[in-house]
Amino acid sequence: MRRFYRLAQASLRSQLASRSPGVPRAPAQLLLKGQETTQGSASTSWLKGWGIVGATAATSTMFLGTSSAFAAPIPQAEVVQADGVRVEASGGARVQHKVIFVLGGPGSGKGTQCGRLLEDFPDIAHFSAGDLLRAHVQSGSKEGNEVAEMIRNGAIVPAEITVGLLQKAMAESGKSKILIDGFPRNASNRDTFLKMVGYDCEMVLFFDCPEQVLEARILGRNQGRTDDNVETIKKRFRVFIEQSMPVIEQYTSLGKVARINTDRPVDEIYKEVKRLVAEV
Ligand SMILES: Nc1ncnc2c1ncn2[C@@H]1O[C@H](COP(=O)(O)OP(=O)(O)OP(=O)(O)O)[C@@H](O)[C@H]1O
Ligand SMILES: O=c1ccn([C@@H]2O[C@H](COP(=O)(O)O)[C@@H](O)[C@H]2O)c(=O)[nH]1
């Protein structure tokens, strides 16, 4: 593996050095696929890192910080050959998004406030992890049916499923800033996001609101959701306290959390939310 790393870096460096001007120069996520034959047996490795695609030799400060297994193929991959290692590098289309996580108990107003933000910030895309999962249920697949059951019970869906849906939505959004509402819901969600997406959020908006207020709001929502009933609302609130609050605490220790009291009128909350998002 170490040999692959070294050769992949050298290969990409030489590729960057020979680039003509005018190619994208934004810091990009680079996905490298290497195929190596050691003592007669072939193996494939995927590596992920960050670099400047299209930089000159002097500024091609490419590095490969992490290595991880990737299932996805690289769209429009460029192929370079180096010393027995085949390297495919993405063309720099994957620019790092600025991600804002919006967290808070069920019914705390995440969807409502995100909807308002879209009216004022055209460069922002909004994805509700819950909405993506509900859309996934519509596929009617075995996995979709399992997700439906978890939602009905207020349980947290395995992180790989949710992050996979988020990753696809982010890649297709064409926007630079992304609001992700209702995610990460537990430590596994956060770890998996970091591993699969490769970077962390800029900020967490934490919508703080008492449980009785949340229950009343959800029961008055009338959207036909399978989890908007007294029994599941209680489970969702418990899951929020036990599993989501520790994530918020972790981000608090990183200085990334803005706590907002959402037991107030929508317009009043929005003034604060808009100011915070404008700073990102
Ligand atoms: N500040 C507010 N005051 C009163 N009602 C509100 C407020 N914000 C949102 N609501 C209402 O409360 C209900 C829940 O709001 P919303 O769907 O935005 O919450 P959410 O946090 O996205 O919920 P969930 O996590 O369950 O998807 C909606 O009917 C919405 O209209
Ligand atoms: O990251 C997520 C987000 C949601 N879920 C499941 O969906 C429901 C509803 O979520 P909302 O945010 O209220 O729309 C939630 O109770 C979970 O079952 C999830 O597993 N992971």
UniProtKB/TrEMBL annotation:
It catalyses: UMP + ATP = UDP + ADP. Keywords: ATP-binding, Cytoplasm, Kinase, Nucleotide-binding, Nucleus, Pyrimidine biosynthesis, Transferase. Pfam families: ADK. InterPro entries: Adenylat/UMP-CMP_kin, Adenylat_kinase_CS, P-loop_NTPase, UMP_CMP_kinase. The keyword Nucleotide-binding applies. The keyword Kinase applies. One of its GO terms (molecular function) is kinase activity. Its EC number is 2.7.4.3. Belongs to the adenylate kinase family. This is adenylate kinase. The lineage of its organism: Eukaryota, Viridiplantae, Chlorophyta, core chlorophytes, Chlorophyceae.
